[in-house]
Amino acid sequence: MILSGVQQAGKPGYPWLVFLHGFSGDCREWQVVGEKLSNYPRLYLDLPGHGGSGNIGVSGFNEMSNMLTRTLLSYNILNFWLIGYSLGGRVAMFHACQQPQGLQGVIVEGGHPGLQDDEERNRRRVSDRRWEQRFRTEPLDKVFADWYQQPVFASLTDTQREALVTLRSQNNGMTLAMMLEATSLAVQPDLRAALSARNFPFEYLYGEHDDKFTALAAELNAVRHAIPNAGHNAHRENPGAVAACLAQILRLR
Where is the AB hydrolase-1 domain (predicted)? Predict the structure, then answer.
């Protein structure tokens, strides 16, 4: 199977920008940013269990990476940058470490490179199983009201939080739970060593108010970019600054 996506045309000779959204998002998530990069052909994908790929499931990161390869080939995308936020960033980093043909570079916003010890993994497994059960059994507006109270979203205003709850509650709880299980940090490998040994450009964006991912960024062998006036969801909170940052990165490559 291949993933659903939305294409936007660019100028000849420019590499593709392939955008991957975060958990409970969809192909629309990056489009405000991507439209400011109109020289580049762009592909916005729906990850498994989300949007137009809502009926697609994966068993883990390897299957996800293989599906991404098949999807890009189906669009005849031979030279591309991967740009991913949060879950999409984790998928992008994992896929890049498989050394896919045609990869020009990876840009990650707020994506975790992986947990480093068994105790952390066990805590995450317990937490994610609790969320999975809630997504399967409870009204989504109630689940997301609690989801966006997690510390990583502390910079959101009440208005921003309410808007996200309304938007994300349009999802299918069962398919979200399946994707959360398949791509939990509890089962994601620690990608730090592979990313350090990479042969592709690796750029990392984080909101200046996102303390957790500011600290994680400092652990990575990547070019780091702090996005002003933003928390964890920087491309939503300050799309103009993120678009300008991406444009600068791409001009220099």
Answer: 17-244
Give the CATH number for residue 226.
Answer: 3.40.50.1820
Report if residue 182 sits inside a domain. Answer: no
pLDDT in tens, 91-112: 999 999 999 999 999 999 999 9
- C-alpha torsion angle, residues 218, 211, 240, 158 (rounded to 10): 170
CA distance 232 to 201: 22
Determine contact, residues 141/167, Cβ cutoff 8 Å.
Answer: no
DSSP 8-state secondary structure symbol assigned to residue 47: P
Q: Specify if 216 maps to a domain.
A: yes
Q: Is residue 132 part of a domain?
A: no
106: β partners: 82, 202
DSSP state of 153: G
The model's pTM is 0.96
Q: How many domains does the chain have?
A: 1
